Fold:
Amino acid sequence: MEQSILNFYEKSMSMKQVLIDAVIETLTMSLVSTLLATLIGFILAIVLIVTDKNGISPHRYTYKILDVAINMLRSFPFIILIIVLFPVTKFLVGKHTGTFAMIVPLTIGTAPFIARMIEGAFKEVDRSVIEAAKSFGTNKLQIIFRVLLPEAFPSIISAITLSLIIIIGFSAMAGTVGGGGLGAVAMNYGYYRFDGTYIFWTVFILIVLVQIFQSLGDFLYKIVKH
Amino acid sequence: MIDIKHLSKYFNDQKVLDDITLHVNAGEIFAIVGHSGAGKSTLLRCINGLEGFSEGSVNVLGQEVKHLNESGLGALRSQIGMIFQNFSLLNQKNVYDNIALPMKVWGYSKEKIQRRVNELLKLVGLEAKKFVYPKELSGGQKQRVAIARALTLNPKILLSDEATSALDPNTTKSILELLQEINTQLGVTIIIVTHEMDVVKKVASRALLLEDGKVIGLGRIEELFLRPDEKMMRFLGEDEELPQEGVNIRLFFPSNVSYQPIVTQMARALNLNFNIVWGKLEKLNDHVVGSLVINIDEHNARLITAYLQDKTEVIWEIL
Ligand SMILES: Nc1ncnc2c1ncn2[C@@H]1O[C@H](COP(=O)(O)OP(=O)(O)OP(=O)(O)O)[C@@H](O)[C@H]1O
Ligand SMILES: [Mg+2]
Structure:
């Protein structure tokens, strides 16, 4: 990994090209991870909200097991999680370094977080709306997809935006332990070679990316929220 | 239509419904009245199975609620509309989609849904608000949408849990009028839960009084309000301070005589003076009825009662 970037450097590739490649890597990592983490988080959130003791189909043990598992995953410092997941990553992707490999820990690390936020969005839905839906004979599946989901949708959009931003941050962190992207550039060029310009540009680009996605998320929220 | 027998329900160890027996007739407006925490909502929710119960039986539209499985309960609920104090609309859906939701859930065709929703919008007077979202509606308008939604599936019964409690008096009046219209024109049996006596007096034909989960009164509202027994009196918070001396006679004026000057006529005819010590006029179901207590010395009481008996339609009792 270090070797390959060194080679690039040796070939005196321009800083611009390095940064562009890094941005593409960061975006790929973050967006794919967010997508996967959202899918997993969404399913977990639905299981949580359904099996909750005030849910539509309470199931104490399912809820408790999931609850504890999510809390455990969430309490791992992310760097440690990446390392702990090396074998899993290797099994799934074939190697444990590089942009695609990092999608595994990023997804596993943030899915519990998204699950909690989407669960929170579902819980915000007024209980009496669910009661009303039951009162005209809505079944459990319909309550989830015709009542909970549309009512929680704007909050879910916010949750996904926040997750994406956190994942961008995490992906930069992942760059320092073998991932690609802006984190790796900052580490290899900035930290190991004491090149302040790289540090400056990676930080600058990260700030801009976060700004763009936050604005995009806010804009989407405004469109869907009534 | 609804037949409840010896219904009891516990929350944990607290008995919130205690041996309730009651029958609601098809086509009537029936009120469940009581103070906060009396168990009104719980009783109402037992009717459509939103709440289970431990003892007794609840028979609705010929079906025993506790024997129904999930799909049976769903089918029963499709015949029972329900409205709530806080309207319970989906905020992310516009008026049209809110009203259409029950039909979507039951898989009706787009055309049928469209026709029905337009019909209902007209009934509740919100045609102009078809594509507006709930947050842009007033409380009264929201409740109209909720009423329309409750009627979408053409229910035989409408349950109303404090539907007017969050509304101002004028809006309350218009919502009650809408409910009356639904009752008389569509023949929907309505059960209203309320703690507001004025609501009961205005629309209900019969009422059940609930206190700590127990029935303390059940009957036609003229009887409940005009000839309240001791429990009812306490319930209404009406302590009459009646004189200890002489005889107190309570007169009830049914609606057909309540506009006649009976009391003054009687005073003149008998050439007697008496004290009017308590009285009130009530509007029940658009009929005015009155109740009055007069006080008179012992030896003249007989003249009064004889006059009332022979010459008037006033109902009376000696207290
Ligand atoms: N889900 C519940 N769990 C435990 N206790 C409950 C529950 N729901 C209601 N209760 C209790 O049951 C009793 C009756 O409640 P209910 O809501 O039926 O009263 P209510 O007459 O409708 O009162 P209000 O006018 O305030 O709505 C109350 O003492 C309440 O605390
Ligand atoms: Mg209540």
